[in-house]
């Protein structure tokens, strides 16, 4: 059985209850209190203009920042009541920018995803190697296995970091703009991967049309406030999109595919 099958990965319920964040108690909140409940196995797209609070929320979800208020639960357990290693076994994250000075090969970087599952100073075992090899094949990284990470293009580095996250075999996958630096082919591969994995996925995206295709739910943010949450066809009205992004918006149905697509113009 594939190590990436739903039976092995699984997914988790994510509940965000009255969560907010600011740099300090004396400074204004960057992310205002918000709540949502994402059911296991669903894909949530975070959308909003630059500075809306998307990356701030993601940093709370993968336990980088402590919420100023509220709590985040994965399968009913507060992630701040769990040990960091235990959280890393259920939540994996892929960030926008990656360090380029790793003195490691591509396979070495991908193998780092197995660290939360090891005991003490143990090295990779046969099961780890099988997982690493399968993930690298799935992400089309076999030919790059022995390249140094720092020599890769931005798009190649992004695929390596997605692979590293998948080797953690998480239940929740957090992706911050995963299609940045990718050409059209690899953007489509990432979208296919999102739809193909039986995981709970939370992803920030700039492309609203991509969001409608790839996501089961959306959370719309503006100035740190939640403007809407739910299925894209119920939340993403032309009025809401126009207000959030300060553009004129039209929603059109493509005749051949019967899919909806937004078009935009600058507001006057």
TrEMBL record:
InterPro entries: AAA+_ATPase, ABC_transporter-like_ATP-bd, ABC_transporter-like_CS, P-loop_NTPase. Its EC number is 3.6.3.34. Residues 14-248 form the ABC transporter domain. PROSITE patterns: ABC_TRANSPORTER_1, ABC_TRANSPORTER_2. The keyword Transport applies. GO terms for molecular function: ATP binding; ATP hydrolysis activity. It holds the Pfam family ABC_tran. Keywords: ATP-binding, Hydrolase, Nucleotide-binding, Transport. SUPFAM superfamilies: P-loop containing nucleoside triphosphate hydrolases. It comes from the Bacteria. Belongs to the ABC transporter superfamily. This is Iron(3+)-hydroxamate import ATP-binding protein FhuC.
